[in-house]
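2024-03-11 09:14:02 INFO worker-7 job=invfold-0412 stage=load source=structure_tokens
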């Protein structure tokens, strides 16, 4: 569905933008215009990704455990393990005096998500949890109430897994529980363009007003929201923002000129697993050169390079046939046959 990929395209750009802006701000000690874009998106930036990931869960939840786990658990853990190893090896393994530290980091990454890869790690855990709840026949309403309570409690556990589970499971399960409603809403908005545009404008004004209300702070490495930080309001804005991006995706899918965004969303995981390496290299090189003094412009350059680099590598891999295991799950990493018979599974969707 084009609008799903469009929404994921918007989401991956916002995710890379956040890291690009905050990573740059960390070293310049200043904020740029992208910090305010990210500030606006703070309530819904990651919730939208999780909500979309749950939209198609109902189509696979009843599969036997082996087939389900292959697509919804092993699929994510393969790429998490692979790219965690690559990132740790590049960050620490290059230093001859740090083999023990590298080994410790690799071992710790098994129980605590490493860096930006926490999202992929959590998708695997969410998939297991949803399947167990389905087997136990727990009503959607009960799960949503408990998950919402955990999210609003803003639990800060010593375990990053527990913290992120409490913060984001509600959005993944919401996508699963209200998928039919989301599809009907987007379809209706597609048929009523004027209403859709007016709704998006009203949402944007309300979201911006609540985020940037008195008490907010836009800092080099984070955004502290105003009234939007109140837990019940934060939860509501997260769901509203996720739905707004879905509607935006439906409207954008009408324009052939935006097909690049659909392609990017279709391959969003390719970008997600690999963007931090070119991001760090670009930021470091630009700061060392001293040619770009403006934090906003530097953040934008880092964003573009960090997004485009994984795409270029992916296209080269597809063209040459070498290194497909970086972005495709090989046959040995499967625990159940695909249908129809396929030896590899591409990373084209997060659903």
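2024-03-11 09:14:09 INFO worker-7 stage=emit residues=351
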């Amino acid at each position: 569905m084009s609008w799903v990929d469009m929404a994921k395209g918007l989401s991956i750009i916002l995710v890379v933008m956040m890291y690009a802006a905050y990573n740059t701000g960390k070293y310049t000690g200043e904020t740029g215009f992208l910090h305010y874009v990210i500030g606006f998106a703070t309530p819904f930036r990651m919730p939208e990704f999780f909500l979309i990931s749950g939209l198609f869960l109902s189509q696979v939840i009843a599969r036997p455990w082996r087939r389900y786990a292959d697509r919804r658990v092993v699929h994510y853990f393969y790429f998490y393990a692979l790219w965690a190893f690559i990132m740790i090896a590049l960050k620490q393994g290059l230093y001859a005096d740090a083999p023990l530290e590298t080994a410790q980091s690799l071992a710790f990454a098994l129980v605590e998500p490493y860096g930006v890869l926490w999202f992929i790690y959590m998708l695997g855990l969410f998939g297991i949890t949803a399947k167990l709840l389905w087997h136990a026949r727990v009503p959607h309403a009960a799960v949503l109430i408990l998950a919402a309570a955990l999210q609003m409690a803003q639990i800060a556990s010593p375990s990053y897994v527990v913290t992120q589970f409490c913060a984001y499971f509600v959005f993944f399960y919401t996508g699963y529980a209200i998928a039919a409603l989301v599809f009907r809403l987007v379809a209706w908005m597609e048929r009523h363009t004027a209403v859709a545009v007016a709704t998006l404008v009203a949402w944007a004004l309300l979201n911006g007003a609540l985020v940037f209300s008195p008490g907010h702070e836009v800092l080099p490495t984070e955004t502290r929201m105003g009234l939007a930080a109140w837990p019940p309001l934060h939860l509501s804005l997260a769901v509203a923002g996720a739905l707004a991006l879905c509607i935006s995706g439906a409207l954008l899918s009408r324009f052939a000129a935006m097909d690049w965004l659909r392609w990017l969303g279709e391959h969003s995981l390719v970008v997600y697993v690999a963007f931090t390496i070119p991001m760090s290299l670009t930021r470091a090189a630009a700061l060392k050169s001293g040619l770009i003094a403006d934090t906003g412009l530097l953040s934008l350059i880092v964003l573009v390079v960090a997004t485009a680099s994984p795409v270029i590598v992916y296209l080269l891999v597809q063209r040459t046939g070498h290194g497909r295991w970086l972005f495709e799950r090989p046959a040995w990493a499967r625990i159940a046959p695909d249908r129809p018979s396929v030896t590899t599974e591409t990373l084209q969707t997060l659903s």
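2024-03-11 09:14:09 INFO worker-7 stage=report msg="The radius of gyration is 20 Å."
2024-03-11 09:14:10 INFO worker-7 job finished
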